[in-house]
Every structure is written in C-alpha cells, then in structure tokens.
Amino acid sequence: MGKLVSLSIFSTLLTISFLSLNNSIYLLPLLVYFLYRIFKPSNALLPPTPFAFPIFGNWLQVGNDLNHRLLASMAQTYGSIFLLKLGSKNLVVVSDPELATQVLHTQGVEFGSRPRNVVFDIFTGNGQDMVFTVYGDHWRKMRRIMTLPFFTNKVVHNYSNMWEEEMDLVVHDLRKEERVRTKGIVVRKRLQLMLYNIMYRMMFDAKFESQEDPLFIDATRFNSERSRLAQSFEYNYGDFIPLLRPFLRGYLNKCKDLQQRRLAFFNNYFVEKRREIMAANGKNHKISCAIDHIIDAQMKGEISEENVLYIVENINVAAIETTLWSMEWAIAELVNHPEVQHKIRREISTVLKGNPITESNLHELPYLQATVKETLRLHTPIPLLVPHMNLEEAKLGGFTIPRESKVVVNAWWLANNPKWWKNPEEFRPERFMEEESNTDAVAGGKVDFRYLPFGMGRRSCPGIILALPILGLVIAKLVTDFEMKAPPEVEEIDVSEKGGQFSLHIANHSTVVFEPVIKA
Ligand code: HEM
C-alpha cells in the first residue's frame, strides 16, 4: 500500500516535471527521494502473510468476521504469528504461549498501547478514557485513580455483603414464580439487572427498581447500542481504506449522536447527583462510592470532567456484559452437566457445614473455583483480548512488526489447543484439580500463558478481583438453592456461540428451569 501511494505520487511528479522542464531542477531531489522509497531494499522480515492484493490487502480473502476460530485455523497454515493486511492496516495474530508472553509481559511496554479507529475515537473522546488509550502518562494516571475505588481487596471486602444481597434477591425472585420451576425462564434479564445494580451501587450508591425501571431500560439500550455500533463490520470499508472515509459520515454522525446522549445520561442522572451531594457538604464531603473518589481526583486537578465521564463509560462497557456472558455460559454448562452441580453442592455442604457461603469462604471451595475457571477457558468471553498496539516498529518472534500494528493474542486458542490441553472441547472442571493442578494460573513463580481470560501484564483486566468472586458467589448461590435443568422436552441447552472478534457470547439466551432444592 505504501509503495502504491509512493508510485502514484512519483508518476504525478514525473508528469509535472515534464510539463515544466524549467522547474525540474527543483523537483529532482523529490524524485530521487521517491525512487529511493519505492525501490530501496527492505530488510524488514515481516511475519508470514497470505498474498495481499493492492489496496484491499487480505480483506477480500479473509472477510469481515475475523473471529477466534477463523484465526486459530489460519494459525495452523501460517504459524503462531502471522500478519494480515486489512486495507491500509496491519493485523498481527499471536497464537502461542511464548509469543503471548512477549507481547503481554516481556515487551509489555512496546505492545502496551491500544489501536483505535474512527469509531472508537468517537466513543472514547480520542482516548480520554482508560481502556482504549495509548500506553503512557494518561493511562498510568487513569489506572491509578481507578484502582483505589474499584480494584482493591478493601473494595471487595466493603461491597461483598451488598453483592450477596443483590444475589439473594435473584434467588428470591426465582423462587417466587411457579412457571420458573415448571417451564423455566430466560434468566439473563434478571441477572443483567443484578449486575447493573451491583456496579451502579459501587459506582454511584444508586440502584434500579426493576427490569421495567425507565432508567434501567435507558441504560441497557444506550450500552447495547454503543456495543452494536462499535463492533459492527459495517464501517470496515472506511476504516481499512482511508480514501473511502468520507462515505462514513452518516455512520459517524450516528455514533456521535449516541455518544452525546449516552454521556449526558450518565452525567445528568448519576454523576451530577453525586456532585450535588458532595457540594452540599463543602470541604468536609464524605466519600461514599467510587465516583466520589473520581470526582475528588478531578477537584484536585488530576483529571478533567470528561475523564470522569469516560471512567463511567469504561465501567459500563468493561464490567457488566463480560461478567454477564460468563454467568450465562456457566449456567448453560451446569444445566448440561448435572454431575458438576451435584459436586459443587456436595463440596459446599461438606466444607461449610451449613454455614452461609460468603466471599470470605470462597477460597475453601476449590471445585467451585475450578468450575469458574473451566467456564472461562472453554468460553473465553473476550477471546482475542482487547487488541494491543506497538506505537513504534518492534520485533516479535524474529519478525519485524510495523509501527501501529494491531496485535491480537488468541487467548481462546491458547486455552483450547489440543497441543496443550487434554480434550479441550470437554467441559470438565476436574482438569484443574487433576492434570492441570500444578499449572494453575501461576506455576513455580511462572505465569501460565496458556490460560489468559483476563489478559496478563500491564494492560490486563484489573476487574478480575471483582469478577472472580462475583461469578463464584452467583454459581454457589444458584446451585445451593436450585437444581438447574433444561426445560421440559429439551434434552440439552444449546451452547452455540456468537461473536468472537470482540466478545464471545451464547448465541441463544438459555431458558432454564430452577427447581428449588429441598434442604435437609
Ligand atoms: C468475567 C469478566 C471479565 C473478563 C473475562 C474480562 C476480560 C478482560 C480482558 C481480556 C481485558 C484486556 C486484557 C488485555 O488487553 O491484555 C480486560 C481489560 C479491562 N477490564 Fe476486564 N474483564 C472482566 C470483568 C471486568 C470488570 C468486572 C471490570 C471492572 C469493574 C473490568 C475492567 C476492565 C478494564 C478497566 C480493562 C482495561 C485495562 C487497561 O487497558 O489497562 N473487567 N478485561
């Protein structure tokens, strides 16, 4: 592509120079420069790549849907590192634990940025957020400011009672209705309300009344529309081929309009309320929830008002749906594997001897934890992690990675490649207590780079500290209270998947029968 552009500029210059011979003396150095650019021998050894067509690169061959399975099958042809040209953009795909270690850990600084395109520029205010900003001072500051109110053991300790309260309400609602134990329900909607309430109580000390609460309806609509527009393949042509960008104007206006209304919604209904409460108490304002901390940092001049809103936006995007997809996967697999439900139930009754399950005793329940791990292994919710990027040209696996390449680690394939896992297609939590018991997330001080559902290193998921106990508690509570079953006349729950390039979710939200367990 670079050579093509240079060639066309070169031919234009040639024409001009013939037209105005008098001026050619001035154009000569430019001509020499372009000739050099076009014909200079390249000693950059790029990763293996399929034949790339001019302008389109590999886009027409590989299509739009570059999901984890397609990229895993390409890795078998092109190797554990390969490069795809998508129009003017480079996509580097890494499918091997050693190289993943390089990208995420050893060369974590070089590959620690995130690529953004025209659409993500809109949804992040050109990187005023934390998740999609480049690696540097702004990211460091945002990550530091977010850590204290969201990602510490103290936060887990302070909020775990509230999480349990919200989970007990789910159990209560499921027990209430006859049809839930006979015909079953699509449990996703109720769990979605629970997760919104968990996150909004942590962020704003606010909660939604019910699934019909107009604010809940607005919040879920705004967030799902944001995901739809950001993750659509519809705008690829303008993203990959800059010449076509003007045709994206309508699409980009739609994104801008949504983003404006969405940020105004977060601001007017939630952030402003906290500002008012804080202002009423003047200098003695008390810090009661996460956004109070963030506003406090803004008042001290550390970040801007926009940064505050983008932190709210990031939590809405990163925290809620990821955890919800994982819950849906876990429940579907538990329905299809009643023996796993029985084992968890037995473990809880043997270990806790009738005492309630709380966050503080989850560590005593290894089989429950293995079930969470196995769910995230088989159904990695963000199978290619959030893309990484190198700001400058870099080396990886002996190859040259051109600057500003989008680098993805196929975390799903690392965790599902039969070369490294015994019968990886099986849902079998026991693997983490048997053949994998010595290669837990950390083995002998070394990180196991085959298992990375939360990434690893500088840009890894800070939310792991919340997500794992929330998942463990929900599963434990549902399994102790209910026998989860497929609806009558359905043999097995459908666990077909959807997505893969950005996120991996269950294709059809499961209908599940919750039959109350009769406790002795
Ligand atoms: C099961 C649930 C979750 C999964 C599977 C998950 C997974 C991930 C992954 C794969 C990344 C990117 C790692 C990388 O690029 O190397 C990430 C980043 C991130 N996650 Fe999560 N996540 C989950 C829950 C959460 C929660 C609950 C929160 C917040 C409360 C959260 C906040 C974030 C943030 C802020 C980042 C960006 C980090 C950065 O760029 O520095 N996540 N997550």
Write down how many β-strands occur, each being a DSSP E stretch of 2 or more residues: 13
Q: Calculate Rg over CA atoms.
A: 26 Å
Low-confidence stretches: 1-22, 29-41, 441-445
Count of individual helical segments: 19
Measured by DSSP, the beta-strand proportion falls in 5-15%
Whole-Å distance between the termini? 71 Å
Quaternary assembly: single chain
**Small-molecule binders:** protoporphyrin IX containing FE
- Strand order, largest beta sheet: 1-2-7-4
Largest sheet: 4 strands, mixed
Give the % helix.
Answer: 40-55%
Broad shape: globular
- What integer is the average pLDDT? 91
Structural class: alpha+beta
Overview of this protein structure:
The chain is 53% helix and 9% strand. It is α+β, with helices and mostly antiparallel strands. Strand 5 (394-396) and strand 6 form a beta hairpin. Helix 7 (137-150) packs across helix 14. 37% of the residues are buried. Residues 1-22, 29-41 and 441-445 have low confidence and may be disordered.
